[in-house]
Amino acid sequence: MVLSELYWDHHIPLPKLGPLQSRLVTAFVALVCFINSYDGDFVFDDSEAIINNKDLNPDTPLSNIWKNDFWGSNLSSNSSHKSYRPLTVLTFRINYLLAGGLHPIGFHMLNVALHCVISVLMIDVFAILIGGLVHDGRGAKLSLSPKASFLAALFFASHPVHTESVAGIVGRADLLCALFFQLSFLVYCKAFQGGDKKFSVLWIFGSILLCAVAMLCKEQGITVLGVNAAYDILMVCNLNIFEVAHQLLSRRKSADIGGLVRSGLFMRLALLFLGGSFLLYARWRIMGTGPPSFTEVDNPASFAENVILRIVNYNYYYSLNAWLLLCPWWLCFDWSMGCVPLIKSATDWRIFWPLLLWCCLMGLVYQALCSQDSNKRRTLTFGLVLLVIPFLPASNLFFRVGFVIAERVLYLSSAGYCLILAYAVGFCSCHWKKHKVHYNVGKNLADRGNQSAAVKYYREAVRLHPKYVHAMNNLGNILKERNELKEAEVLLSAAVNIQPDFAAAWMNLGIVQNSLKKFDKAEQSYWNAIKFRKKYPDCYYNLGRLYADLNRSIDALNAWRNATMLKPDHSLAWNNMVILLDNTGNLAQAELIGKEALKILPKDHTIMFSLANVLGKQEKYKESEGFFLNALKINPNVASCHGNLAVLYHRWGKLDLAKRHYELSLRLDPSAPGTKENYNMLKRKLELRQRTVG
């Protein structure tokens, strides 16, 4: 899938680092924030989960971790909390073995290391959620939001609400669950690497398997399937939920259901649903088909007799969780034992906080669904998905939980908050001036093909902010297409003077200068673009066109060859190589290049057409005919293809077939150059043959 570059990403006040540097910085920040916990002792829940847990002892059979809960109690026991996390317990046992006993430093260091790894992986997760899954011609992953994803990962790495998960050893369950949650999501995304709406069922099964592993670390892992489904619907299939709902409610023609079926969406959702159902059923069986039992002290709101009171207090708990994400000024390891008194009256002022929370959430939901800005919709929607879905198991909506508030359950949900916060920073950075509004409107109009209106808004954006290089570049592009080359050159020259490393603007400037026949300047502009973006196949392609205009054939071929090396499916570069070699009389080499191209692009009718012409000139009529006919199967309405095939038949002596394709060519394009003259010559030849026979 290909998405436009984020307009707000480059406004984020961070340096633009390479992938390796951003990961190292994120890991360093995570390490610095939590390394002070390395010499802590076993505290609070650690005593039950580690010190008193016999499953950690090497003398206890390893099979016991698969029969007991997280605290070492048998799952069939009435006192069991039913928290089945054998893989987390296994890591505790490994810590015990490596340290030769219960020495907390090893336990703490592994927690810190896991948090560093998870923070680094968050860069990839955020990059996909913000900018989509984009690859270059060689299949390497590209990030359209390097600063935004880096900033969100930094927020995640340093958020204080993670203290309990990282500094408390029992938080290992949340860390491992988050790690395999991320891996499950990233593997699900790999299912779509093939492009052209193809997907790999094998990768989807791999994602479900990693979801199962996440569940064996903590129950919350099942929620990754919901995030995967949301990603599939909103990003892969690019569905606008608001528009679909509006069409259904207004009884107008709804979204293209057939298209969704062909894309495989329903099949993928069915796989996720069946996989999730199987995992939940297996978990239910392991639990003994009965929920855990908790006391009123553990979760007083769930024991309130009045349903309204339960709902109000649950929502108050949600608002406290939201406040911990927004302002983690006071943190607590245990919120039970009356730390949060119940709301029992409508006059309790604390009712204001749930109301405020829902007003904020509704505002975010409205923006996520109804905004005209697709980047904004996508980022806010995935922020809410990542905020809400992992929190659902702790929400008391499906079953009673054994706590009032637990900061460790916010470990995954905080990623959604960090994503929304990063968007807010980017939004404020680029929208504090009015020029952004005009730029966004102009971009949307240009995307819809309304270039005249787009020019008006781009001009206003540049007027309000004379150094806004992206508006200059986009306006220059439109002016270039409208053949207003002088103004386009001025704008693009200004853009690269303001931002000398703006590779796209250098390339566009080169195209304009080439059109103005300023060939030396155009060549320098192209090389500047390549200097600032080493792997730039489109720039090499345009550089090749410049060299071809200057009759520098060897340089042109080298430039186009570079384009195809960087992007093997660059059809135009392949085709131009074949045409140039044909025009310069290098027919054998043109044939080799054409056949090499078709191995990579077997259905490219333009390359078939060019190769057929080359073969025809070599009098390889049969082979040439095959490529012409294959090209016409793919695109039967190309007048030039019918015309050149007719010429081939004409030379070959198959005059009736030549006549048929001349007529087809003229029917498609009556003014096709040379075709009418050739057709008239053929008719005279046929008449002469007929008179001779007669």
UniProtKB/TrEMBL annotation:
GO MF term set: dolichyl-phosphate-mannose-protein mannosyltransferase activity
Q: Which InterPro entries match?
A: O-mannosyl-transferase_TMTC, TMTC_DUF1736, TPR-like_helical_dom_sf, TPR_rpt
Where is it predominantly found?
endoplasmic reticulum
* E.C. designation(s): 2.4.1.109
GO terms for CC?
endoplasmic reticulum; membrane
Which Gene Ontology BP terms does the record give?
A: endoplasmic reticulum unfolded protein response
Q: Which domain of life is it from?
A: Eukaryota
Keyword DNA damage, does the record have it?
Answer: no
User: Domain named DUF1736: which ranges?
Assistant: 290-362
Q: How does it sit in the membrane?
A: Multi-pass membrane protein
Q: Where are the TPR repeats?
A: 435-468, 469-502, 503-536, 537-570, 639-672
Q: Which subcellular locations apply to this protein?
A: Endoplasmic reticulum; Membrane
Q: Where are the transmembrane segments?
A: 112-134, 169-188, 200-216, 222-244, 265-284, 351-369, 381-403, 409-430
What this protein is called in its record is dolichyl-phosphate-mannose--protein mannosyltransferase
Q: What organism is the protein native to?
A: Cyprinus carpio (Common carp)
